[in-house]
Amino acid sequence: MSEPALTTATPAIDPTFENVWDEIVWRGLVHVSTDQEALRALLAGDPITYYCGFDPTAPSLHLGHLVQLLLLRRLQLAGHKPLGLVGGSTGLIGDPRPTAERTLNTRETVAEWVDRLRSQVERYLSFEGDNAARMVNNLDWTAPMSAIDFLREIGKHYRVGTMLKKDAVAARLNSDAGISYTEFSYQILQGIDFLELYRQYDCRLQTGGSDQWGNLTSGTDLIHRVEGVSVHAIGTPLITNSDGTKFGKSEGNAIWIDADLTSPYAFYQFWLSTSDADVVERLKVFTFLTRAEIEEYGRLVETEPFRRAAQKRLALEVCATVHGVEATAAVIAASEALFGQGDLTALDADTLRTALEELPHASVSPGTPVVEVLVETGLVSSLSEARRAIAQGGVSLDGSRVDDESALVQGTLPGGVSVLRRGKKTLGGVFVG
After folding, report:
1. CB 54 within 8 A of CB 114
2. Which candidate among 242, 373, 386, 396 keeps its CA 20 to 30 Å from the CA of 167?
C-alpha cells in the first residue's frame, strides 16, 4: 500500500492556555480533585512525577482507559514525568465492582495480561529526554510484604469507618452480594502504591477515573499520615453520551484498543457514528486538536451538520492515535469503497475482510447464486424477494449492478471475498471458499 496521505494533529500542549492545568480543565478532564489552586501551581512549576495505574483484569485496555492514557501524555508534553503502573498485585484482586464480587483470575493469566497492558501503555508515552517515562509493577513491592508488615506498617493508618464510607464499598455493602475482605482491602493496596511511588520517585500526583476517587484519596491520605506531606489526585469524569447511554460500547460490547479484540475498522466506525451533541466534547478529550480547531468544528456542527466534518476528524485522529496512520488510511479507504466512493479491488485484503466481518455476512462456496447469498446474508428474507430486488435494479455485486438472477458469487475481491449491496446503504459481506 502506498504511503498514506493523511494529516493528523501533532501531540502538543495548546500554547493559548497559560498552563496545562487550564487546558485539561477546558477539555473537561477534571471532574474532582484535591486542592485546585495548589494543583494549578504545581503543574505550572518545575516538573513533577505523576502516575496512573491500570489493572490487568482483561487482556486489553478499553476506551475508558484511553482517557487516562491521553491525560498521561498531555502532562508529559507539558514537561512532567509519568509513571505508568500496571497492577500485577491489584490485578490479582480487582477493585470492587458496584454489584458483585469479581472472579479471581489465575496468577498465570494476570502475569500474561500485565505484559499485554504494559506494551499498550508504553505506546502512549515517551521514554526519552529529561522527563522520560517509567513503567512500574506494584507486585514488585507488595509481593515481598508479609501479612504482619502489612498490618503493622500500613493497616494501622486506616480507619474502618472511613473505609466503609467509600462509594464502591458502600454500594457493595448495600447489595445482596456484600463484599469480601479481599475486595474491601483493595483501597489499601492502591494507597500503598502511591506511598511507594512517593518514596521511590517523589511522585506527587495520581490520576484516575472519578469512580476511583475513594481509591485515589486512599493514597493521598496515607502519604499525609505517614510522611506528613500533601500530594494530589485528579479524577476524570466518566464519559457518557448526551442521551444518557454508556459511552465506550457498541451493541453492548466494549470497544478495546487491542486490534485483535476490536478491529481498526470497527474502531473507526464507532467514532464516526458519534452524535452531533457529543462530538465536540469527544474532540476535546480524545484528540490533540487545538482549542481554535475544535471551536471551528463546533461551528461546522451547527452550520453544516450534514457534512459530519467533526465526526470524520474525530474518527481519523483517535484511530490514528490508537492504531497508527497507515491502518487508519486503510480503514478509511475500505469505508469509502464499501459505500461506493472508492475502488474495492484496490483495498488491502486483511482490512477488507475485517470490515466485512462488521457487516451482515455469510460464508459460501464459489459459484453460489446471488439470489441465495442475498438470503444467507440477511439482506432479503426470501428467494422471491431476492429476485424482485434484482429485477428492480436494486442489487450490486462487487460494485457492479446485478441484472441476471442466475449470476454467481465468485469472491473476486482481495482475500477471496465479495460485497453485496441492496439499495444504496444496505451491505453484506460474502466470504467465498
Report:
1. no
2. 242
Cα 286 to its chain centre, rounded Å, is 9
Domains in the chain, number: 3
Residue 61 inside a domain? The answer is yes
CA-nearest of 197, 60, 194, 78 to 123 is 60
What pLDDT digit, counting tens, does each position of 132-151 carry?
Answer: 999 999 999 999 999 999 99
Q: 369 by DSSP, 3-state: which?
A: strand
98: its cell numbers: 458496584
Are 246 and 240 a contacting pair, CB within 8 Å?
A: yes
- Reported as half-sphere exposure (CB side, CA atoms, 13 A), residue 414 has a value of 16
Count CB-CB contacts under 10 A for residue 299: 11
Higher pLDDT, 425 or 323: 323
2 confidence band (pLDDT: 50, 70, 90)? very low
User: Nearest 5°: phi and psi at 237?
Assistant: -70, 150
Percent of the chain with pLDDT over 70: 99
What is the DSSP code (8-state) at residue 425? T
Residue 253 CB partners (closer than 8 Å, separation 6+): none
Range of the domain at 391: 359-433
Of 90, 91, 140, 96, which Cα lies nearest the Cα of 113? 91
Domain assignment present for 21: no
317: Cα separation from own chain's centroid: 13
Q: Looking at the predicted structure, is the pLDDT value of residue 98 above 80?
A: no
